[in-house]
Amino acid sequence: CGVFGAYSQSGSAVLEDIYLGLCALQHRGQLSAGVAWIDGGSVHIKKGLGLVHEALSQSELAQVEAHTAIGHVRYATAGGTRPEDSQPLGANYAQGPIAIAHNGNLTNAVALSSYLANRGAIFQTSCDTETIIQLMAHQPGTVQLEALETALSKIKGAYSLAVLLNDCLIAARDPWGFRPLVLGRRDDTYFVASESCALDIIGAELVRDVEPGEILVIDRRGIISRKLPKEAQRHHHCSFEYVYFARPDSVIDGRSVYSARKRLGSCLAKSCGCPREAVVAGMPDSGTFAALGLAEEAGMDFEAGVVRNRYVGRTFIQPTQRVREAGVKIKLNPQPGIFDGKEAVIVDDSLVRGTTAGRIISMIRESGAERVHMRIASPPVRYPCYYGIDTPSSEELIAAQMDIPELCEKIGADSLRYISCDELCEAIGLPLGELCTACFDGNYLEEEDDQSLLEV
Ligand code: 5GP
Ligand code: SF4
Ligand code: MG
C-alpha cells in the first residue's frame, strides 16, 4: 500500500495535493484509493475501488477546504477486497475523530482483535488496521495522542502510518522500519509519504526519512518528534522495496532505488557470467534497471528487447492463475528481429511463481533466439512475507519447490542464475543486520510473547 498526508500551516486546501501524491504512489496499490479529512469535529472519507482516478474525483476533492488530510492506495495483504476494507479507516469515538492510513501488515492483529472482540469491540472491517482504532477506543478518558502511542506499543509487525487526529497530522513508522516513510515540505505545508517520488510530483522537497520507531506530530505550531516506547534490536528495512516494489525514482532510507537496481544487475554480471556476444534485455519495467547494470558491468549490448504494454497493471495483482497467465501475454511482447539467431540474456527482478519468466522465455524462443539465459536480480524467493508484500505461500513459490536445474527446465531456460543475500545487501548499500531478507532466507523478526501485549 501507499500512504500520503499533508498539513498546511497557513490553512490552504490540501486535497488536490493528496490526490496527486496518491497518483505517484499508484504502483504501491491498485485495488482501492481513498482520502480522509476532518471537518466540524468529524471524519469525512471518500474512497472507492480501482485506480486513483477511478476511485476519486480530482475536481470534487479540489473543492474541499481542509488544510490537513490523508490518503491511501491499497494492495491487499490483510483483509478482504470489499469497499469497506479500503482505507483510510475513520471513526468518531469518545475522545474525538480519527482517520488512519496504513502500509504494512500487523502480525498480532488476530490475537489482539479476538481479545478486543471478547471485550465488546465490534469490528467493521476485516483490516488489521482497525485494531489500532479499537485499541485507542478501549482506553477511556485517555487523550488521543497518548492512546495512539499505547496502541502502537501493543501492535507487532510492519506499519508506516499517516494518521489524522482532530487538528494534527501524525506520521509513525514501526521500530524496525520495514516500510518506507518520508517527510517532505513545500513552503509552510508538510507532507508525509510512502516514497519520495510522491513529493516530487507536488513540488515538495524531501526533508528526511521518518526514523524507525519515530512518531511525528505535525500541527499549526510545527513538528514534534517523539519516540515509540518500544525499541528494536535492529532495523529490518524491506530489501524487496529496492528489488521490486518501490519506484526507481524514489530515495529510501538515504539510498536511491534506481542505483540499487543497477548495482543488483552488476552483481549478476560479476558473479554469474554471461556469454559476451549475447543480447541483454530486461523484463520491463521491474527488470530494466538491473539489465542496464548487468550490460554496463559486462560490456554487453543492452536492447529494449521486451516491450511492455503500459496500460496493463502489475500482473500479480490479478487474482487467479488463469487471468495471471493471460496477463503476462497481454503485458509483454518481444521486439521482432532483435533475438533472431542470437543468444539472449533476460534479466528480471524476481521469480515468484515463475509464470512471467516461463511465458517470456517461450516467446523469445519463438522470435528466433537460439539460447535464452535467465538472470534474476534477487535471491530465490522461498518464504512468504508477513510484513506487507503479497508473496504467496511456499507451495506457490516456485523456488521453494524446485532446485535450480528443475527451475531451469520448468521455465524453459538454458541457464538460470540468482544473486546471493550478501550481494543483495551490498547492492542496496546496507548491512544484512539492517535489512529484512526474510522472504529470501527465512530469517523473520524475532518477537516477544503475545500475552504481555494484550492488556489494554
Ligand atoms: P511470477 O510471474 O514469477 O509469479 O512473478 C514474477 C514477476 O512478478 C516479476 O517480474 C516481478 O516483477 C513481479 N513481482 C514482484 N513482486 C511480486 C510479488 O510480491 N508477488 C508477485 N506475485 N509478483 C511479484
Ligand atoms: Fe520485504 Fe521480503 Fe521482508 Fe517482506 S519478507 S518485508 S518482502 S524483505
Ligand atoms: Mg516484473
UniProtKB/TrEMBL annotation:
Its EC number is 2.4.2.14. The active site is at 1 (nucleophile). [4Fe-4S] cluster binds at residues 238, 385, 436, 439. Pfam families: GATase_7 (PF13537). Binds 1 [4Fe-4S] cluster per subunit. Binds 1 Mg(2+) ion per subunit. Mg(2+) binds at residues 286, 348-349. InterPro entries: GATase_2_dom, Ntn_hydrolases_N, PRTase-like, PRTase_dom, PurF, PurF_N. It is an enzyme of class 2 (transferase). Residues 1-221 form the Glutamine amidotransferase type-2 domain. GO terms for molecular function: 4 iron, 4 sulfur cluster binding; amidophosphoribosyltransferase activity; magnesium ion binding. Its cofactor is [4Fe-4S] cluster; Mg(2+). Pathway: Purine metabolism; IMP biosynthesis via de novo pathway; N(1)-(5-phospho-D-ribosyl)glycinamide from 5-phospho-alpha-D-ribose 1-diphosphate: step 1/2. Keywords: 4Fe-4S, Glutamine amidotransferase, Glycosyltransferase, Iron, Iron-sulfur, Magnesium, Metal-binding, Purine biosynthesis, Transferase. GO terms for biological process: 'de novo' IMP biosynthetic process; purine nucleobase biosynthetic process. It catalyses: 5-phospho-beta-D-ribosylamine + L-glutamate + diphosphate = 5-phospho-alpha-D-ribose 1-diphosphate + L-glutamine + H2O. In the C-terminal section; belongs to the purine/pyrimidine phosphoribosyltransferase family. HAMAP family: PurF. Catalyzes the formation of phosphoribosylamine from phosphoribosylpyrophosphate (PRPP) and glutamine. This is Amidophosphoribosyltransferase. It comes from Cloacibacillus porcorum.
